[in-house]
Design a protein that fits this description.
By secondary structure, the chain is of the alpha/beta class. It contains 15 helices and 18 strands. It has two domains: about 250 residues, Aldolase class I (TIM Barrel, Alpha-Beta Barrel); about 70 residues, no CATH class. Helices cover about 35% and strands about 25% of the residues. Strands 9-10-8-7-6-5-4-1-11 form a nine-stranded mixed β-sheet, sandwiched between helices. A three-stranded antiparallel β-sheet has the order 12-13-14, with no helix packed on it. Helix 1 runs parallel beside helix 2, helix 2 runs parallel beside helix 3 and helix 6 packs parallel to helix 8. The relative contact order is 0.13.
Length: about 400
Amino acid sequence: MALLTLPPLSLYIHIPWCVQKCPYCDFNSHQAEQKNNTLNELDYVDALKNDLQLESQFTYGRKLSSIFFGGGTPSIFSAHSIAAILNHAKKIIGFENDIEITLEANPGTFEQEKFAGFYAAGVNRLSIGVQSFNEKHLQTLGRIHNSDEAKRAISIAKKAGFNNINIDIMHGLPQQSVDDAMKDLQQAIDCSPQHISWYQLTIEANTAFYRQPPTLPNDDILADIQERGSLLLTDNGFAQYEISAFSKNNQRSLHNLNYWQFGDYLGVGAGAHGKITDINNGRIIRRQKTRLPDHYLKNAKAPKTKQHTVATHELNIEFMMNALRLIEGVPSDFFEKRTGLALAEIQDSLTELQQQQLLAEASTHIKTTPLGQRFLNVVLEKLSAEEKINVDGLQTGKQ
């Protein structure tokens, strides 16, 4: 068995409230009714501080390399609250000098004063959930902003000082043509962000779209959208580094890279997940907080947390499901350092996939070929079919 080493450490902070729940969203988000005081912003900030204090036991001397405020809609909180959370994290854990701090926001919740406040609080990257610039599609998606508001929000963000902005854009929307999708993408490009997350709408369980499915474009249209969109982004200077992530001037999402490279992250907030290398006991653990905001707040001094050790036979596929999303893959030695497993245990499968031209024949990296990216599910199925992984002389079969 290989020796586990500590990877970089990130922090995910979940803000579970939105102004309005979108019909495609299966995230842990809840509509906030501020007039009835159901937002509980101040109480929630206090609960996050307590939560973070407890999670700090898993830092093992590391400082935070990135922080991500996700939701819900984190920009529904005041800049004062965001600053209080960041100040607490810096005090009890500490920040790397080049820390990336991202806050998700929707155009419908923006105000110029708030933007400046987020920037002053220490947020240095915004991820703006535009999704579409087409008014008809925005209505179908249940968005509360229009196209002009989205463009104005991006402009306000730049004036506030942000020079690292991501725009989320969906494709494969109900009744969307190829031309519609390209117009959306071109308008996102014209806003001159440093990063674009361009991903296909999928119908998830426990959503309004699942209960009443809309008519989506057929496979041929989806393939044309994917092909033309990728070319459009490339032609405009955006390099694809992950399945749905494109950046200019190498301004990649450091936080998401840490996920995909099987790094560690603390998770605080209702329903937040964390993944930790327990270096003392030589294991990988996953932690999840109680999901409902009311339950989380009722146990604010000691949030209820589920914890389990990732089984040895699951580590291989958990690592690969993340790492192979990256176009460049990951250094080969990451597998052993971040799972504690010997790469030799899966070498037969790697060799077979290389022979099928699904994995690149590179000694320094584990990565797919362009064909492997297209058939990533096939690659993962093969890697998950490993029947035995040898650990200290013991054989652990797949369960």
